[in-house]
Design brief:
The chain has 505 residues and is of the alpha+beta class. It has ten helices and 24 strands. The longest helix has 22 residues, at 6-27.
Length: 505
């Protein structure tokens, strides 16, 4: 009989042990990063819980008195859906069992939102106005944060994040690097709704809307067929970057889906700032695609209209050379703001206006530090429309229609709220009514299409616009420029009117 040496026998045993360990490890049930301890689960909706296991492996998920069972498919994927849950601030555990057992702790049930976009959404709490004080005061145990780390892309949708992350309770040790807009939005929701709030941040500064959009989203909009075809032809080895359509979505959003959530907030557009109606089509594609992948056709979606930026365009009587003075406007971001407004035709959406939030002393800063009002105005939309608080006006005055009466144009608005006023916004202070103040940044034109600065007065819920230079007006513009610094029409709820034009020249 052949006798093996102790060294060879030891090596053989080690090899067998490694193979057994590898087989056992491959059979372990695994979860995506976004499902973990300290998370918030969405109330009142079915809750997908998913992951990976060995093909055919039986998996059970237990939470809040429910147990759901399934078997992993031939590809190792599995999913169950828990029944709708009521909001709960009492920490609970969730157990997943297969060949192994995973126990997640300190889970709450409430409202979940994804916060996404480019740098103005990525901008963190510490970098916002009064940032150090805000971080110090951010002990919010019922607000939970999940941040997608890094800036990563993929030509095809990925199941897992490129860099692992985890949920954390919001406090001064965890909050400082999270999206300021997202945090201020969630903080207000938590205060008003008195339920736990889960916030998922996935952002990348300087990016366009296209890389955040799904293939299905592009395919849903006929005007974007060429982009859809480009994405459809991606292979695993296709080289993509931060500007490639769908590439960011594939790696920074797809691994989160279909985590149950109420909606998304979006601050992006600067990198598409030269566009007009093409951005309108892309916004439809973005929302359509996300609603499909998150399996929620009513997913709420609220975005920020681009803030005022660069040299102010104001009416100057004394010395026109002092400032850029162009009554016609139409420069810079005027048209993409118009496209953002037009996209409000998508159901269950809203838009926070920000043309009064840039620093007047530093208009060239593309990152206004006042993220508190941005988050608050997004929350105003959500509270009104998603959560049914109809006593809140969702936004500022929105142009509805107009009538020409002789030499004057009478403008009507939606979202007048408590009434119209001349207002002034200073940093974080509430908007103040300027008694006896004069409306600014209205322009008027006749059939010659020659725009001049106009006089405008508030009469009840309407604004009447006129100019001695235009006897027979045909159109009006308001704030239709890159930086309408003096635009000052507000409702008495303190929210500014949206820029608009009545023409399509």
């Amino acid at each position: 009989m052949k006798v093996h040496s102790p060294t060879r026998l030891s090596g053989f045993i080690t090899l067998i042990a490694c193979l057994v360990f590898a087989l056992t490890a491959s059979a372990d049930v695994k979860l995506p990063n976004v499902i973990g301890s300290d998370m918030v689960l969405q109330r009142d909706l079915p809750i997908p819980i998913w992951g990976w296991a060995e093909a055919g492996e039986e998996v059970s998920v237990s939470f809040a008195g429910q147990t759901k069972k399934t078997k992993a498919g031939s590809d190792g994927n599995w999913m169950v859906k828990l029944g709708a849950l009521k909001a709960s601030a009492n920490p609970s555990s969730l157990t997943v069992k297969g060949n192994n057992e995973i126990k997640l702790e300190n889970i709450l049930v409430g409202e979940v939102w994804i916060c996404s976009g480019q740098s103005n959404m990525e901008w963190n709490i510490r970098g916002s106005m009064n940032g150090n004080e805000e971080v110090a005061a951010s002990d919010q145990p019922l607000v939970r944060l999940f941040n997608v780390p890094g800036h990563k892309v993929s030509p095809l949708p990925k199941e897992r994040l490129a860099i692992p992350s985890k949920w954390t309770a919001c406090n001064p040790q965890t909050s400082s690097g999270f999206s300021a807009v997202g945090y201020y939005f969630g903080r207000r929701l938590q205060k008003e709704l008195n339920v736990p709030i889960g916030l998922i941040g996935s952002n990348w500064g300087g990016t366009k809307i296209e890389p955040w959009t799904t293939l299905a989203g592009f395919q849903s909009v006929p005007e974007l067929a060429k982009i859809a075809e480009q994405v459809k032809n991606y292979k695993a080895d296709t080289r993509v970057g931060g500007g490639s359509p769908s590439a960011i979505y594939n790696q920074m959003v797809h691994p989160l889906a279909p985590f149950a959530m109420r909606g998304g907030i979006w601050y992006q557009g600067e990198s598409n700032g030269g566009e007009h109606m093409s951005y309108y089509h892309k916004k439809h594609a973005l929302v359509n695609g996300w609603r499909k992948v998150f399996q929620n056709k009513d997913l709420a979606f609220y975005w920020v209209q681009l803030a005022n930026f660069r040299k102010p365009n104001v009416r100057v009587v004394e010395d026109p050379k002092k400032e850029f003075s162009n009554a016609a406007g139409g420069d810079g971001w005027a048209k993409i703001r118009e496209a953002q407004t037009k996209a409000l035709d998508i159901p269950h959406t809203g838009m926070a206006v920000a043309i009064d939030l840039a620093d007047a002393h530093n208009p060239n800063d593309i990152h206004p530090r006042n993220k508190q009002d941005v988050g608050g105005r997004l929350a105003q939309w959500a509270l009104h429309q998603t959560y049914g608080k109809k006593d809140l006006v969702p936004t500022g005055p929105l142009y509805k229609n107009h009538k020409i009466k002789g030499s004057k144009v009478h403008l009507s608005f939606d979202h007048v709220g408590k009434g119209l006023m001349v207002g002034k916004k200073t940093k974080l202070e509430p908007t103040a009514e300027v008694k006896g103040g004069k409306l600014e940044h209205f322009a008027i034109a006749g059939e010659d299409k020659n725009w001049v600065w106009a006089d405008a007065v508030i009469e009840g819920d309407t604004v009447i616009v006129s100019s001695k230079e235009v006897k027979k007006p045909v159109a009006v513009r308001y704030g239709f420029t890159m930086n309408p610094a003096n635009a000052n029409l507000y409702n008495k709820d303190g929210i500014p009117a949206l820029p608009f034009r009545t023409d399509d020249w």
